[in-house]
Structure prediction request, 352 residues.
Amino acid sequence: MHMHGNSEWSSSVLLGVNTFGDVGLGPEGEPKPHAQVIREVVEEGKLADQVGLHAFGVGEHHRKDFAVSAPEVLLAAIAAETGKIRLASAVTVLSSDDPVRVFQRFSTLDAISRGRAEVILGRGSFIESFPLFGFDLEDYEVLFEEKLELFDRVRSQKPVHWEGRTRGPIRGLTAYPHLEEGLLDTWIGVGGTPQSVVRAAHYGYPVSFAIIGGEPARFAPFVDLYKRSLEKFGKPYTQLATHSPGHVADSDEQAREELFPHWLAMRNRLGVERGWGPGSRTEFNAQASRSGALYVGSPDTVARKIAATHRVLGTERFDLKYSNGTLPHSAMMKSIELLGTKVAPLVADMLA
Prediction:
């Protein structure tokens, strides 16, 4: 892994941000055009670089409430406007993609950005990409397993010999372009299944844990399982990250009041799809509490929570999903600014 971290606080926790390009509302309360949201994400990426954050991640979705379906194209645009920040997918849905093309797109991004590309591979928590690209959900498990195996061989930048049942064989071919230096930085995004943790360790890939509900502390057994599995497979430890939603504002009250209506609307929209009951202020307050998975509040409050997560899990990186449903672009820009200028130095002080 050719880590080119740009943060002066790298001795504690590297801080990044990510977004799905959540579609906000226009002046009349109508959804913004996807094109406008995509341009705003480029502005957000530029700001994240300017305030010294370590990484900017963009997720892949195929539904009308998220504008980003081609993360690498968007990241390439941000690469051209930035100098230091690492550029990641969050996540790339490998199961419904072609592993050779995923490697090629990210190795191209790595060239454009001079070594700043990262791919975070996952199965995705949404399933829209499967019917869209002609895949059967019955093959959910085998698609990811086979495609991860193929991706790992392509990533080696050596001739690939591979055969499986989810696509045609490759016999001695190599994928280009190659990286200027080392191998493509690759992570596995994990939602909390032991099999996914062990699989990541088998390939020696670092893990980003998506902690979107409950207490971050409950992921401690997964961290332990990952480290034990690396040892078993004879792979070196590199790093671990966590990813959680949140929002930073000047005060706790402001952050909560700004976020709550947008959080609730998104929570209930997804709840209808997934058979959950309606959300509430009580649920929000529990998630926003000291032990919950929502990192919302003043810079000091959010910094304390990030530092506490680091102490419990020992992770080296924290990525905040700063976009939350229809939260306005201006509020997200302020959140990114505070994360870089206020939260990052506070976390470093707390962990010094």
Notes: The radius of gyration is 19 Å. The first strand starts at residue 14 and ends at 19. The mean pLDDT is 95.
